[in-house]
Amino acid sequence: MDLKKSPAPTDARPDSAAGDRPLPPTELRCSDADRDRIADMLRDALSEGRLTAEEHAERVEGVLAAKTVGELDAFVRDLPAAQGPRPSASHTAPPHRPTTAIPAEADENVVAVFSAAVRRGRWRAGRRIHAYAIFGSVEIDLSEALFEYQQIVVKAISVFGDVQVRVPENVSMRGTGGGVLGNFEVSPLDSGDPQAPTVFVDGWAVLGNVEATPRKGRLVADILERVSERVSQSMDRKSAGTWERKVSRKLEEADRKMRRRMGL
User: How many domains is the chain partitioned into structurally?
Assistant: First the structure.
């Protein structure tokens, strides 16, 4: 019987060293939640006038057909909402509680009892804002508010109701409340800029809901810049008033001269 030496078996599996290498994040498959997030950014960009209706429709169609995270990012690469805040090199985390004296009395109360109350747009945010939702809903939108103080407290009380707090994405935010058979959720924000405002959300959700989240693409402007802008506008109004008074006096003098000439 002729026995021949057979070659040692070889591993037919491909080299696993390259296969085990993790893919970069941009090559990962995107989820429906990823598509919804990008679609929300595009919808906000359309409402803000950054995209035309045709551009919005074209990009949404591409988002629905996208398969990877990188393909999704390409549709919002030129939008502010996709640009995250950039922390400074010497960064100090904001405190969890106010470090300055804030009055216990609210500068503004927003109350909804079996109803809805909304505070949004261009408004001046005080140092303390109280929101009460009793079988109702309250929305406190600070994304376009004027921040005159570096630390702001929002006290939210929800009893069988809903309180929504929205802030610009480049401020700091901390939450110290809780829920009793309810939901109290604050998305912590860290601006990275020591001069940026800090919003402290406190309160309770009793069989209700309290949420505080940033609005993507909304940035708070520099406080000093806004103060100087208001001063400039005030000076412009004063100058306009002086000019109007001078014109009025000239017209009155011309009228008197005309009447004298006509013997009236």
Answer: 3
